[in-house]
């Protein structure tokens, strides 16, 4: 029976040797349902948890102090939702898996627990935030030649952010975020035939782990003039100053593994936001244009780095969001209730090197409980 299964897999693999693909997505250790609903903009618009992995200067823009006692995000792409029944159903496992060939199955589970945000601490010009962040993301791609390309990354560790307002009317804000992060990740492809021969996936041989401390630096500047009442605020941030190589702190939790996880490269990110507290009888409208991930887009096109987005509030507690990120439309809604925070979003992630080649449509839900 086992030999028959090997022959079957080989035959199907030969039938699909054309049209193989590889993933070239930009790996990020953190995502935000609010940000992705706005086309991905966050370096000049970010609030609360978005500041831990974007522009630390924006921690000074948090409107009120907050304590998060629960903050959970779950994200999946359309392929995983469509293939769930196929992969979990009965019948022949090889045939079921072959029917999903050519698609990427993505999931991310992200938790921030706990987190503390203080817009003013020590003085009226200083801001601070501290949180423990855990993110598990996986992209399991069965290529048309029936090799499995498993990209799974687990990140966990604390982050602290400090910002200081400067100059007249606090126009300039500078900030820094420090990270201590442990990462475990897969590091190689695994063929379906290897799986059938071994009977299981050998995680130790295909995983790498590491731990590091690293820093982000950022700033924002509020321009002194307001054209037609719009406040303009350019910003810039450099993330992972030390190169994000997960090796300046020792880690040995996975016995038997010998490699290091993929690095999180140093990136440069900049843009400009425009805000107005009263726009067309709406509350607090935000428009932003940003360029992200310079340094984390090897061989990729410039268009993968461009993000444009907006957020308008119909009420103080209800927000509508929309944007374009990497060339794909995004949209979302947010409910900012006194105790519960809920965000829903959909957006497209580019998995190829050029925008418009391979859209991965994703959906995310974030539920938070805050004091």
What do you see in this structure?
The protein is mainly beta and 371 residues long. The protein contains six helices and 15 strands. The protein has a single domain (2-370), classed as Lipocalin, CATH 2.40.128. Helix content is 13%, strand content 49%. The protein has a 14-stranded antiparallel β-barrel with strand order 1-2-3-4-5-7-8-9-10-11-12-13-14-15. The protein is globular. The model is unreliable at 1-20 (pLDDT under 50).
Write a compact overview of the structure shown.
By secondary structure, this protein is mainly beta. It contains six helices and 15 strands.
Which CATH-level-2 architecture? Beta Barrel
The global form is globular
Compute the CA-based radius of gyration. Answer: 22 Å
Our count of domains comes out at 1
Q: Which structural class matches the secondary elements?
A: mainly beta
What's the CATH topology label? Lipocalin
Number of beta strands: 15
SS summary, helix count? 6
Q: How much helix, percentage-wise, in residues? A: 10-25%
Low-confidence stretches: 1-20
**What is the residue-mean pLDDT, rounded to a whole number?**
87
* Beta fraction: over 45%
Q: CA-to-CA gap between the ends?
A: 59 Å
Biggest beta sheet summary:
14 strands, antiparallel, barrel
Order of helices and strands: HHEHHEEEEEHHEEEEEEEEE
Strand order of the largest sheet: 1-2-3-4-5-7-8-9-10-11-12-13-14-15
What is the CATH domain class?
A: Mainly Beta
């Amino acid at each position: 029976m086992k030999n028959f299964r090997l022959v079957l897999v080989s035959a199907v693999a030969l039938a699909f040797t054309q049209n193989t693909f590889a993933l070239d997505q930009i790996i990020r250790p953190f995502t935000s349902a609010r940000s992705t609903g706005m086309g991905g903009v966050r370096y000049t618009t970010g609030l609360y948890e978005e500041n831990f992995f974007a522009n630390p200067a924006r921690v000074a823009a948090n409107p009120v102090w907050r304590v998060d006692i629960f903050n959970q995000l779950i994200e999946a792409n359309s392929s995983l939702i469509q293939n769930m029944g196929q992969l979990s159903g009965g019948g022949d496992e090889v045939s079921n898996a072959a029917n999903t060939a050519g698609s990427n199955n993505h999931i991310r589970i992200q938790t921030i627990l706990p987190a503390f945000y203080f817009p003013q601490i020590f003085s009226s010009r200083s801001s601070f935030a501290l949180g423990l962040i855990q993110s598990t993301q996986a992209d399991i791609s069965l290529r048309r030649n029936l090799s499995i390309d498993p990209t799974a990354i687990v990140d966990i560790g604390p982050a602290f952010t400090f910002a200081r307002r400067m100059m007249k009317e606090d126009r300039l804000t500078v900030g820094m975020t420090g990270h201590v992060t442990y990462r475990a990740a897969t590091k190689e492809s695994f063929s379906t035939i290897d799986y059938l021969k071994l009977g299981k996936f050998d995680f130790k041989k295909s995983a790498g782990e590491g731990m590091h401390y690293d820093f982000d630096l950022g700033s924002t500047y509020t321009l002194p003039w307001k054209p037609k009442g719009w406040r303009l605020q350019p910003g810039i941030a450099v993330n992972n100053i030390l190169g994000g190589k997960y090796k300046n702190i020792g880690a040995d939790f996975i016995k038997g593994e010998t490699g290091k996880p993929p690095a999180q490269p140093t990136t440069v990110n900049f843009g400009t936001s425009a805000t107005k507290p009263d726009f067309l009888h709406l509350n607090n409208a935000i428009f932003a244009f940003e360029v992200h991930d310079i340094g984390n887009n090897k061989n990729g096109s410039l268009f993968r780095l461009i993000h444009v987005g907006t957020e308008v509030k119909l009420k103080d507690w209800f927000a509508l969001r929309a944007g374009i990120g990497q060339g794909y439309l995004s949209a979302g809604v947010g409910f900012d209730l006194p105790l519960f925070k809920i965000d829903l979003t959909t957006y497209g992630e580019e998995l190829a090197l050029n925008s418009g080649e391979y859209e991965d449509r994703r959906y995310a839900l974030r539920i938070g409980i805050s004091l």
